[in-house]
Amino acid sequence: MKDKRVVIIGAGAAGYFTAIRLKELNPQVDVLIVEKTGKTLAKVRISGGGRCNVTHDCKKVSDLLLHYPRGKSFLKKIFHDWSVQHTVDWFESNGVPLKTEGDGRMFPESDSSETIAQLLEWKAKKLGVGLRTNASVVTIVKLPSEGAYRWQINFNTGSSEMATDVVLAVGGFSKESQYNIISHLGVAIVPPVPSLFTFNIPDATLHALHGVSVQDAKVKLVGYPESYTGPLLVTHWGLSGPAVLKTSAWAARWMNEKAYCTTALVSWLNLSEDGMREMLRDVLAANPKKRIDNLTLEGIPRRLWDYILKRAETPLTKMAADLSKFEFNKLIENLCRMPFDTDGRTMFKEEFVTAGGIDLEQVNPKTMEIKQVPGLYATGEVLDIDGVTGGFNFQAAWATAATAARALAN
Ligand SMILES: Cc1cc2nc3c(=O)[nH]c(=O)nc-3n(C[C@H](O)[C@H](O)[C@H](O)COP(=O)(O)OP(=O)(O)OC[C@H]3O[C@@H](n4cnc5c(N)ncnc54)[C@H](O)[C@@H]3O)c2cc1C
Fold it and tell me: pLDDT by residue (tens digit) across 133-145?
């Protein structure tokens, strides 16, 4: 067989990092990235609101894995071999130190995704990685085993490239049919559905509260077993914020089956019902002569309190001491389990990931090679792996890329 020639399809985070790590480990390998558009690292550039949330300050692998609705057990060994610390050290040793925000998200100190994109581009060029843009791969053909190359990669332009090994780093697609360059090789695809979205809620009085947020809410979808906690934000179209995004990621497939028409129950303070009763009772007892609409509940903004009172049909002019048992219970119900009917979804700051992709059963986690198709590897979002927001999706891209590179370098 000829010297190793690796063609990486896709010039995103996973494609670039596979190429760079491969050249770092074995400079002799001929590496070429091919990209269908005229732009490289397009998602890196727009990621994290233009700041690129590179990874998450989660040093323990067991904790890190808890943030992946899909791919958790597959990623275990991969994260032991390429942890968050490896990511931090790699960027730092290449002159891009990362900083950690209060919630654990890690960004370049420059606060600019351009720093990350430029580093990857500069590093790949310096290491001699080839790049071919405006080259959309239409088919990947397996060649007879006696030849010098195992693969012929055909482009929409009619031209082709030969390779000993191919890495699929094509990212996620919204439709199953878009995976045809992979599926025609017999690689099974888990049907894609969107993850990381906000809930559309057709309620004009809720929309009027846009911008109001609470720091620790709980969201539970009726009929879905789990609930998710975190900050919650009211938007012009419904509900958003980490508690909603987490729910959308974990329940991505379930909500898709329901055509995004579900009922979300919101606990505004994420307290147990007993805890909420105690808190409300204390506030009422401390302010017996205050009108109910003038009370302050810690953690509930004023405008939201008015909305909760309206939803609970509490007479606003009543004094705290005069609240009936029925009214008290209705308020508790709306503080602990306020129902919202969802009707569709909206992207969160255009950030989204695909749940679904290459079935992990077919991939060797030690090498990222497709078990049934020797010489074909996959890294990044094309795999049926996705994380919640916070830098977890890039961490999976760096780690799967590093794993493939290690295998290809040998
Ligand atoms: C707006 C936005 C913000 C985000 N912010 C963050 C963040 O801050 N932190 C985080 O962890 N995650 C973030 N994500 C998710 C993260 O960007 C992705 O998970 C990650 O970029 C996936 O990298 P990838 O290389 O696997 O795929 P991609 O970045 O999608 O790259 C795939 C590349 O393959 C090319 N390609 C596809 N098909 C072909 C073909 N047939 N021939 C040739 N080339 C092809 C595509 O054009 C593309 O350039 C964000 C996502 C979005 C959309």
Answer: 999 999 999 998 7
Q: What is the pLDDT of residues 353-396, one digit of tens each?
A: 999 999 999 999 999 999 999 999 999 999 999 999 999 999 99
Indicate if 247 and 233 belong to the same structural domain.
yes
Alpha-carbon gap, residue 75 to 137, rounded angstroms? 28
- SS3 state of residue 127: helix
In ligand 1, which atom is closest to the CA atom of 55? 11
How many angstroms is it from 222 CA to the middle of ligand 1? 32
Domain's final residue, options 313, 335, 350:
350
Residue 251 sits in the same domain as residue 338 = yes
User: Can you give the pTM of this predicted structure?
Assistant: 0.94
| Same domain for 154 and 204 | no
Q: Ligand 1: distance of its center to the CA of 5 in Å?
A: 24
CA–CA gap between residue 401 and residue 31 (Å, rounded): 14
Quick check: 78 and 403 in contact, CB under 8 A? yes
Residue 144 sits in a domain of what CATH number? 3.50.50.60
Residues with beta carbon inside 6 Å of ligand 1?
9-15, 34-37, 42-43, 46-48, 52-53, 136-137, 169-171, 181, 350-353, 380-381, 391-394, 397
Give the ligand 1 atom nearest the CA of 40.
49
